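Here is one record:
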Amino acid sequence: MSGAERGTSVPTAIAVTSADLVLPPTDQQTPTAALLHPPDEAPLDAALVDMSVLLEQHGYVVGLYPASLPAAHQRRLHTVRAMLESDRIALLRLDLPPLGVAVLARQLRQLSICDFGAGVIASAARLLSHYIYAGALLASVARLDRIPVSLKSHAKSWMPGTQFGVLAGPRPQMVKVGGGGALAGPDFATQLITARGQLQSEWVTGTLAPAWRVQQLHEVPLPQDSARWWGTGRLIEFAAFIPDISVLYQLVSSVRREVCTWCGIQLIGDRCGFCSAPLTAASSRTGATRALTAGP
């Protein structure tokens, strides 16, 4: 099977927790994402109706949300799932920063119209997150608690004009801008998306992007949860990602598919995205890295 084959059935619904996590589609065939509204925007009965409609129209729903999502919103998501008593709703809590979550959501939207089942799409989120280089340029790391920060860096963050390049994933890293260090970037072809907060700097586009040899730059509005995630509104968030659906398709299809022993859905990796049950046998992941160098 070469390239990404488009499915003929209704695609699995990809859902996110705010409109600013819905990035522009990559092409006319990429579907949009559904919104899972917070409790202060929609009562519980409305949320139940919305989810029921999604299930009726799409069969399965894969919901993504950042770990920084307020607790009340997280409880709402799981309450809806529990009240509907549905095993066709996957709720995936991600350690990626908000812009990284938005990038991953769009990649799953791309894959949702390929010949993958809902279980494979849900479990692909964990695989693809390892290929998203998500970070930010920060004016201060004094309140950053999601990345290891040394006492020395905390002290430097109080010095006027100090800026830090921080990588949240796939491997956490932090460098002082102008200090000679460099963030480790991807060794495969990517594009870079940026979102500007209350910080003026050309470091991301003028220094980081050339060093990472990104093929194209995009700018979008800053997600509303980014300041909370990074501990400051004085930032420029960024994420390098694989844009080519053919490469994404090869990455996912190169991993051996398993059947969940609890709910019976097909998946990749070692844990079901719908019921969270672990597999009893380890999955083969050996083909995923090779797909990056194979090309479309």
In short: The CA atoms of residues 226 and 286 lie 34 Å apart. The two ends are 11 Å apart (CA to CA).
